[in-house]
Design brief:
By secondary structure, the protein is an alpha/beta fold. The protein is 41% helix and 12% strand. β2, α5 and β3 form a beta-alpha-beta unit.
Length: 506
């Protein structure tokens, strides 16, 4: 592993823009790292070194001509979750249904990254159509956790988190519907952010659950995540759910938080996120994290949000209902996979055969759940009731934020579980998202920052920081202050303790 793959995105960008190093050299170093370790990890579904090197060369050429960098991250390599459309690479969503599909347009996030001079090296693995908590539901095989190759990297964005944790790239973009950025970040020791719903455009993001899906950053430091947030965030008229408001000052907040002073900040500890089902080592790491926040000057307040206890069942009615509608477009008629079209079958038969062959078990399970919840006679009893619970969760958040500035909890109840351990137990799999789902249902901002290693098994634990809608900067300030305190107490960044995969990669 070279020094170029060890540096943060902020440091790489500063050196590229000062022309101390070239963006091409940085891109080559990361492509070499991917070649060395990705056969063991399987974080990527698609790589395009030529496109990446051409984008890097364009950044270098502009700098040599005296042009200012297009953004603070110009020249920095990035991996993109394979749910965002890209004109120069396939977009499969981890599904056979879209195997080899080449989109005719870029997602807004993709376009903004290109305009910012960010070097997209490839597309990362994911649970099929973002449905899962382990990246085992990908039609193209599971991704492995860099901390322990026998364990999952979380999901659905396990490929993005694993790529960042393994130093294949310094940055990635994921999506978070019920925790699919934060949960993988927690179990891989990375920083993952779910911005306020509507804060990052969903145009060109292949929809799973339209009222919940949200793109966001994955990084190794809070500042890197903030820099990426400012690149991809902002109003987009192509997305009807996009918020017409400035991006919160997240970079400024991250820099301010790094000063390590939280005097006057009120931090609420959610009492519902503890007890049975939580790994003891996770709870102990969380208690240490809260103690560090108190040492930084924060006022710690216990906060009860009783409706959070009902968030998981409400989510697993709302999200499948929306997915049953969104995935109806994958019918074998317009694009993607088509099965049985030999001239002897009706269109309905071709559709049925295509969906049977193209969708995996978890996607089928959620489509059936959602279709049932929306069916005549059951709509009010299931989907309607779930939406009422959603309102109660919004009220709990509103009441909590009258008392405190941010809320904190463990990001996940456990550390990374072993590959195959929960594939036959959907309920156990769904419980991985216990702490992350409320913020999606409410549309609030939330992030996960590494909280050290569990003393149970030596695997990463995440601290979740939740903030009100459009107050993303509050979460960044608290997380950045905590990050500095944690690194000081632990003798350096958690990322530097990831086991070296070079030998495995060969």
């Amino acid at each position: 592993m070279t020094r170029l793959t060890r540096w943060s995105a902020a440091e790489l960008a500063a050196r590229i823009h000062a022309q101390d190093i070239t963006a091409v050299d940085v891109a080559r170093a990361h492509l070499d790292r991917i070649a060395a370790v990705d056969p063991a990890l399987h974080a990527f579904l698609h790589l395009d070194g030529e496109v990446a090197l051409a984008a890097a060369a364009a950044v270098d050429d502009g700098l040599r001509r005296g042009n200012p960098p297009a953004s603070p991250l110009a020249g920095v390599p990035l991996a993109l979750k394979d749910v965002f459309t890209t004109v120069d690479m396939p977009t499969t969503c981890g599904s056979r249904m879209l195997q080899g599909w080449q989109p005719p347009y870029d997602a807004t996030v993709t376009r903004r990254l290109r305009e910012a001079g960010v070097v997209i090296v490839g597309k990362t693995n994911m649970d099929e159509f973002a449905m899962g908590s382990s990246t085992e539901n990908s039609a193209y095989g599971p991704t492995r956790n860099p901390w322990d190759l026998d364990r999952v990297p979380g999901g659905s964005g396990g490929g993005s988190a694993a790529a960042v944790a393994a130093f294949e790239v310094p940055l990635a973009v994921g999506t978070d519907t019920g925790g699919s950025i934060r949960q993988p970040s927690a179990v891989t020791g990375t920083v993952g952010v779910k911005p306020t719903y509507g804060g990052v455009s969903r145009y060109g993001l292949v929809a799973f659950s339209s009222s919940l899906d949200q793109g966001g950053p994955v990084a190794r430091t809070v500042l890197d995540a903030a820099l990426l947030h400012e690149v991809i965030g902002g109003y987009d008229p192509l997305d009807s759910t996009s918020i017409d408001a400035p991006v919160p000052p997240v970079v400024q907040a991250a820099r301010a938080g790094a000063a390590g002073d939280l005097t006057g900040v009120r931090v609420g500890v959610v009492t519902q996120f503890s007890g049975d089902g939580y790994q003891p080592g996770v709870l102990r790491a969380f208690e240490v994290a809260v103690s560090r926040l108190r040492e930084l000057g924060a006022e710690i307040v216990e906060v009860s949000c009783p409706s959070f206890n009902h968030a998981l069942p409400a989510y697993y009615l709302i999200a499948p209902s929306e997915c049953s509608s969104n995935l109806a477009r994958f019918d074998g008629m317009r694009y993607g996979l088509r099965v049985g079209d030999d001239g002897s079958r009706s269109a309905e038969e071709v559709m049925s055969l295509t969906r049977e062959a193209g969708f995996g078990p978890e996607v089928k399970r959620r489509i059936m759940l959602g279709t049932y919840a929306l069916s005549a006679g059951y709509y009010d009893a299931y989907y309607g009731q779930a939406q009422k619970v959603r309102t109660l969760i919004l009220r709990d958040f509103a009441a909590a934020f009258e008392r405190v500035d941010v809320l904190v909890s463990p990001t996940t109840p456990t550390t990374a579980f072993r590959i195959g351990e929960r594939v036959d137990d959907p309920l156990a799999m769904y419980l991985s998202d216990l702490c992350t789902i409320p913020a999606n249902l409410a549309g609030n901002a939330a992030l996960s920052v590494p909280a050290g290693l569990s003393d149970d098994d030596g695997l990463p634990v995440g601290l979740q920081v939740m903030a009100p809608a459009l107050a993303d900067d509050r979460a960044y300030r608290v997380a950045a202050a905590y990050e500095v305190a944690r690194d000081g107490a632990d003798g350096g960044p958690l990322a530097q303790r990831v086991p070296d995969l070079e030998v495995i990669g060969r």
